[in-house]
Design a protein that fits this description.
It is a single chain. By secondary structure, the chain is α+β, with helices and mostly antiparallel strands. The strands form nine sheets. Strands 1, 2, 3, 4, 10, 15 and 16 form a seven-stranded parallel β-sheet that branches. Strands 22, 23, 24, 25, 28 and 31 form a six-stranded antiparallel β-sheet that branches. A four-stranded antiparallel β-sheet has the order 6-5-9-11. It is elongated, with a radius of gyration of 30 Å. The N and C termini lie far apart (about 65 Å). The relative contact order is 0.09. Bound molecules: 5'-O-[(L-methionyl)-sulphamoyl]adenosine (MSP). 5'-O-[(L-methionyl)-sulphamoyl]adenosine binds near residues 23, 24, 227, 230 and 258.
Length: about 650
């Protein structure tokens, strides 16, 4: 069985994860889940980088022992990763003894190779980067990443003969053009190597927080050297030889572009010196930006990933980050864009497709589809091409393109439904076989789309697979296998039971999930419930909802009203402002039916509305009630009107 060892950068624990650090873990998790979907034995490693001065200082500020503080932070980090559904196989902390043994062993091997010597360092040091800086690395005397003035330090240091590896590194890059991706980063690093490498400090003096240098326990190993070795210690280096032999070298290190030099110059040179194989590939992803700047705790520009996941769910967040930020490039996060993409891609597109397919299967076949002997329709070949395009993209870590490929299958399926009009076919009993074929093909298309998106949205896709009758709801997507499940199923006679459920991603109106850009950069939470007055999807019927008593039903006051004025609401595609004559006056109601009715067509019509609903503001306009509408198979609103208006004029009670 092929295998794949994948790592992310290990995080400093002086503060909790933010959306930028979470982005890296989510992207790596999509890759890990994709590999597992392809049947590859995968080891996905994450962890915490604890021997940083920042961590030590933060613990002191909080009057805590550094290790006790790191223990607390481990729980906080694990909780974030759990809630974002990150499926790491193991989690390493640099204060663990397995790591200490690995660092001691590897540093000793470098020393034995004659690559460590004693010296003296005088120069800049940026504690936020944990990096020695040269004058040319600073702008206006400040570190360019953290925009802080570095410290000037003078201390005894042990140095690593990095310069000795310049030629070997250059030739490694030449022989392994894919060692560092994307290519832009590779060019940057190659230029750096070709410009000449200087030896680097690998120890710090006068510090107690760290792993003692084997040759001089008065010094500690420089935190970056310590941290890089985690990739080896996590698979048993120096402790469990058979584990190490099985997994080393790593297949892929996923890291941010700010730390490529450490991973693509220092780390390979350390491994060369210690006589170990080099990782097969390093991928330097871009930054998540917030208001035009790198999202960073020290810059004060962070969004809490749990806040984002709580607002719309972890799967939509994973989807947004993987689709909207091309892997390898920088990308923006804004609350508005997050909401808009959620509405377009998930609520209106994929979610709506799932609802329509399940709804039609129930309407025309009581939810039970039997694959007919007829040839599959055009969706079969589109789905097959989609799977190939998806594989190509995902194998090259073009996560965004992989997702786009699946969305084009979703679009094609929506178009197919609009073209073949199953509702018209259903009216003709002689075309029953044709309808069976259409329903089966749509369901199959949704199944393939959910299978392919499962690495991105594991729990939502499990739900979708359950609804189209392929996975018992509750089963995990971990059992999926792309070779088997990414193939269009054509078996005549096979049966599939589709399951109804509530809207997977209820559409959010404008105004929900807005961000006060000038406030303290925290989202302004508004109520999450969909504010639309039109049922979100045509999927569920009363039999699935919890039952209510007749007394509860009578609490709802329904009345007939007559629309006397209707007008569009600026900036809203969905809402109309209505003035409704109630029999005893005029009432203002905001209604989400603009996509189905023009304002002119409503004036003079009788409608049924909820008369005792608490007033609510929609797009800043007060709504005193809710107009009732059914939803047709295309998600369009269909108003409920009294059959005989003169007998049930405005003001009549509806029961
Ligand atoms: N501890 C070091 C890594 C050691 S790996 C041997 C470190 N830690 S970090 O907490 O500062 O960053 C962890 C990862 O998150 C890094 O890969 C970093 O590039 C990434 N990111 C930090 N901010 C980010 C964004 N705003 N956007 C995307 N990734 C970001 O560096």
């Amino acid at each position: 069985m092929p295998k794949f060892y994948l790592t992310t950068a290990i995080d400093y624990v002086n503060s909790r994860p933010h959306l930028g650090t979470a982005y890296e873990k989510i992207a790596a998790d999509v890759i890990a889940r994709y590999k597992r979907l392809c049947g590859v034995e995968t080891r996905f490693m994450m962890g915490n980088d604890e021997h940083s001065q920042n961590v030590f200082q933060r613990a002191r500020e909080l009057n805590k022992e550094p290790l006790a503080f790191c223990d607390e932070m481990e729980s906080a980090f694990r909780e974030v990763w759990r809630r974002l559904d990150i499926s790491f196989d193991d989690f390493i902390r640099t204060t663990e003894s397995r790591h200490r043994v690995a660092v001691t062993t590897l540093v000793s091997r470098i020393a034995e190779a004659g690559d460590i010597y004693e010296g003296f360092y005088e120069g800049w040091y940026c504690v936020s980067c944990e990096a020695f800086k040269q004058e040319k690395d600073l702008i206006d005397g400040k570190c360019t990443v953290h925009q802080k003035s570095p410290d000037w330090i003078k201390e005894k240091n042990y140095f690593f003969r990095l310069s000795r590896y310049q030629e070997r590194l250059r030739s490694h890059y030449e022989q392994h053009p894919a060692f560092l991706e994307p290519q832009s980063r590779r060019n940057e690093i190659l230029r750096l190597i070709e410009a000449g490498l200087e030896d680097i400090s690998v120890s710090r003096t006068g510090q107690s927080w760290g792993i003692p240098l084997p040759s001089d326990p008065e010094s500690v190993v420089y935190v970056w050297v310590d941290a890089l070795i985690n990739y080896a210690s996590a698979v048993g280096y120096g402790v469990d030889d058979s584990l190490f032999e099985k997994w080393w070298p790593a297949d892929l290190h996923v890291i941010g572009k700010d730390i490529t030099r450490f991973h693509c110059v220092v780390w390979p040179a350390m491994l060369m010196s210690a006589g170990l194989s080099l990782p097969r590939q390093v991928f330097g992803h871009g930054w998540v930006h917030w208001q035009g700047q790198k999202m960073s705790k020290s810059l004060g520009t962070v969004v809490d990933p749990l806040e984002a996941a709580d607002r719309l769910g972890p799967d939509p967040l994973r989807f947004y980050l993987a689709k909207e930020i091309a892997f390898g490039q920088d990308g923006d996060f804004t609350w508005e864009r997050f909401r808009d993409r959620y509405n377009v891609d998930l609520a209106n597109n994929f979610g709506n497709l799932v609802s329509r397919v399940v709804s039609m299967a129930h309407r025309y076949r009581q939810g039970r589809l039997i694959v007919p002997a007829r040839e599959p329709g055009p969706l079969a070949s589109i789905a097959t091409d989609t799977v190939s395009a998806y594989r190509r993209a995902m194998d090259g870590y073009a996560l965004q393109q992989g997702i786009e490929a699946v969305l084009s299958l979703v679009d094609a399926t929506n178009e197919y439904i609009a073209t073949v009009e199953p509702w018209a076919v259903a009216k003709d009993p002689t075309r029953s076989d044709e309808l069976d074929r259409q329903l089966c093909d749509m369901a199959e298309s949704v199944r393939i789309a959910a299978t392919l998106l499962s690495p991105v949205m594991p729990s939502a896709c499990r739900e979708v697979l359950g609804r189209v009758g392929t996975v018992a709801v509750g089963d995990s997507v971990d059992e999926l296998d792309l070779d088997r499940d990414g193939v269009w199923a054509t078996l005549p006679g096979a049966e599939r039971c589709l399951v109804k459920g509530p809207a997977l991603w209820p559409r959010l109106e404008e105004g929900v999930l807005t961000m006060n850009e000038n406030a303290d950069q925290q989202p302004v939470p508004e109520k999450k419930e969909p504010v639309s007055v039109v049922a979100e999807t045509p999927s569920s019927d009363a039999s699935e909802e919890p039952l209510i008593s007749i007394d509860e039903f009578f609490k709802v006051e329904l009345r007939v009203g007559r629309v006397v004025l209707a007008e569009a609401i600026p900036k809203s595609k969905k809402l109309l402002r209505l003035e409704v004559e109630t029999g005893s006056g005029i009432r203002q109601i905001v209604s989400g039916i603009a996509k189905s009715y023009t304002p002119e067509s409503l004036v003079g019509r009788h409608v049924v509305y909820v008369a005792n609903l608490k007033p609510a503001k929609l797009m800043g306009i007060e709504s005193n009630g809710m107009v009732l509408a059914a939803t047709d198979v295309n998600g369009e609103a269909v108003l409920i009107e009294p059959e005989d208006v003169p007998r049930a004029p405005a003001g009549s009670e509806v029961k």
